[in-house]
Amino acid sequence: MNIEEFREYCLSKRYVTECFPFDEKTLVFKVADKMFALSGLENHPSTVNLKCDPEKSIQLREEFEDVIAGFHMSKKHWNTISIEGNISNEFIKELVDHSYDLVVKGMTKKKQNELGLL
After folding, report:
1. Full-model pTM
2. Which of 23, 48, 106, 115 is the right S-S partner for 39, CB 3.0 to 4.6 Å?
3. Mean pLDDT for the stretch of residues 7-21
4. pLDDT for 61-103, tens place per residue?
């Protein structure tokens, strides 16, 4: 998966926006103002940081050489994934979905309800 395909998939999710809050090279995707994915656009091959359940994070790092602890992120809750590596596009989409869902679940029920995400 290239970075543009990744971007398109992230933006296809409900209530997702993209921005550059840190600098002009770090693209961030948010759902209702909460970050669920980011990518340093200067990285080649392309890598992305995705939120992940702590136990699943460890499992993924052990199983895939293209998954490492989140670069410049909480190592417990974030992974850095080489999206141009040996991980299938479908599995990358599953990881994006997982990250998005974790962020949505972390919102208050009121906020989830307001957005129609329940």
Report:
1. 0.93
2. 48
3. 97
4. 999 999 999 888 888 899 999 999 899 999 999 999 999 999 9
In angstroms, the CA 54 to CA 34 distance is 18
- Quote the number of domains for the chain: 1
CATH of the domain at 41: 3.90.1150.30
Can you give the residue range of the structural domain that contains 82? 3-110
CA dist 118 and 110 (Å) reads: 9
Tell me the helices (H) and strands (E) count for the chain, helix number first.
4, 6
What pLDDT does residue 105 have?
95
Q: How far is residue 56's CA from residue 36's CA, in Å, rounded to a whole number?
A: 16
Question: For residue 47, what are its two tokens?
Answer: 């890598």
Cα separation, 88 vs 83, in Å, equals 8
